[in-house]
């Protein structure tokens, strides 16, 4: 299972010998000089201001000359964000399933989708074997796919493959990435309204100052990706169409993660591409356009290498009600012995709302319990 391997990898260190790092002092000097030129040009009165005073007084440390590639990416991103989304007659949500093979909760998803035909589309990326389907909604929904190695860029490549397949249908307005161990927490109608009318993408992005957060930043990522811009977040996103297009348009930042973010990339660094690329990228290019929390619930309270897997015995109506009504998000950092927790309220278009639409990780033996409780727990939150 893709997820079972997650966070348990302790592979041998891999060394990188290439250094693309540009002389930072040169870039900084050029930036400072051009700022001084601009300033003296604009206000002749201040001609005598020394460069020292200027730079230390108000010049932000990260001001530098951008490369042609960076200028190009930023121009494309700005243009996409400024263009109002093209709303079709029949807006749909694309559900993107990233799975090794057969989906253990297909029967539950079938229950979720039935009766809402025409408002969703399903795409399945099996990375190991061809799934067997029991629901007609899932028949022949496999896309061209490839192997996925935990922590490596192949995980991000699979996400991009799913996004691009779903972008081909202009009706798809919001895109949801799900794993084989994910379950739905609300009715289809609730989920549809929550996502279609949201003014942001739900991408978790936070600063983890510990070794499994900012500690995974590599100097090779400079100057394009500054250490203070580096973010962490769960892989399981939902994304507006504009953001999906932007992900397709980026090759610059993507290539930094492809080259310099992987398990054992340096002696003590286990950089996990899918936990950092999108959280960092969106923090840099559209920080106000993402929620910073994920709509997919997960339980890290055991503080193990992988999150808690919920079996049939862990599930009760009370537990499900707790998860579906939770309105405070939790983010676990790697600071200190046991990590630290960050919390903030889940704001949906400015209103505090339940955080979670989906939940992971669930053991396949929980299927029958969940099928029985589905009508009860999905009716709780309004
Ligand atoms: C998300 O976090 C970034 C900083 O990391 C912040 O600039 C941005 O305003 C936050 N987004 C929202 C919607 O609060
Ligand atoms: C549900 O939440 C309440 C209040 O936080 C807590 O006391 C209870 O133990 C939770 N129940 C389950 C099954 O998680
Ligand atoms: C989303 O809506 C809230 C509430 O109206 C607003 O404060 C926020 O700026 C909006 N965000 C975007 C990206 O439009
Ligand atoms: C779920 O709802 C049904 C119908 O309202 C009810 O008969 C059943 O007892 C409920 N189950 C639980 C565990 O509360």
Automatic annotation (TrEMBL):
Protein name per its UniProtKB record: Core-2/I-branching beta-1,6-N-acetylglucosaminyltransferase family protein
Alphabetized UniProt keyword annotations: Glycoprotein, Glycosyltransferase, Membrane, Transferase, Transmembrane, Transmembrane helix
Membrane topology: Single-pass type II membrane protein
Location of this chain's protein in the cell: Membrane
Single GO term (MF): glycosyltransferase activity
One cellular component (GO) term of this entry: membrane
Transmembrane annotation, as ranges: 24-43
Organism expressing this protein natively: Eruca vesicaria subsp. sativa (Garden rocket)
Taxon lineage: Eukaryota, Viridiplantae, Streptophyta, Embryophyta, Tracheophyta
InterPro entries: BC10-like, Glyco_trans_14
Main localization (coarse): membrane
Top-level lineage group: Eukaryota
């Amino acid at each position: 299972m893709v997820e079972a391997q997650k966070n348990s990898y302790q592979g041998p260190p891999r060394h990188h010998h290439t250094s693309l790092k540009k002389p930072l002092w040169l870039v900084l000097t050029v930036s400072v000089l051009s700022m001084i030129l601009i300033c003296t040009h604009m206000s002749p009165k201040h001609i005598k201001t020394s460069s020292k005073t200027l730079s230390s007084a108000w010049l932000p440390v990260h001001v530098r000359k951008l490369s042609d590639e960076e200028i190009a990416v930023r121009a494309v991103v700005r243009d996409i964000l400024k263009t109002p989304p093209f709303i079709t007659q029949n807006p749909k949500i694309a559900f993107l399933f990233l799975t090794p093979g057969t989906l253990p909760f297909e029967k539950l998803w079938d229950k979720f989708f039935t009766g809402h035909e025409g408002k969703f589309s399903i795409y399945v990326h099996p990375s190991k074997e061809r799934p067997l389907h029991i629901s007609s909604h899932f028949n022949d929904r496999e896309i061209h796919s490839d192997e996925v190695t935990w922590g490596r860029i192949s995980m991000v490549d699979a996400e991009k493959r799913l996004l691009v397949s779903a972008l081909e249908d202009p009706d798809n307005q919001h895109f949801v990435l799900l794993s084989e161990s994910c379950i739905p927490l609300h009715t289809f109608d609730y989920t549809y309204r929550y996502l279609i009318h949201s003014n942001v993408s739900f991408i978790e992005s936070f600063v983890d100052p510990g070794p499994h957060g900012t500690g995974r930043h590599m100097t090779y990522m400079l100057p394009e990706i500054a250490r203070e811009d580096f973010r962490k977040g769960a892989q399981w996103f939902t994304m507006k169409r504009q953001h999906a297009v932007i992900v397709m348009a980026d090759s610059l930042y993507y290539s930094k993660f492809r080259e310099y973010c992987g398990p054992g990339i340096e002696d003590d660094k286990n950089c996990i591409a899918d936990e950092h690329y999108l959280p960092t990228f969106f923090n840099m290019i559209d920080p106000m356009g993402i929620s910073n929390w994920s709509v997919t619930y997960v339980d890290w309270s055991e503080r193990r290498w992988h999150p808690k897997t919920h079996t049939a015995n862990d599930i009760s109506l009370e537990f499900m009600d707790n998860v579906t009504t939770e309105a405070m998000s939790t983010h676990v950092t790697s600071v200190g012995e046991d990590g630290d927790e960050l919390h903030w309220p889940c704001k949906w278009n400015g209103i505090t709302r339940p955080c979670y639409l989906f939940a992971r990780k669930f053991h396949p033996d929980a299927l029958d319990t969940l099928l029985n409780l589905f009508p009860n727990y999905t009716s709780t939150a309004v």
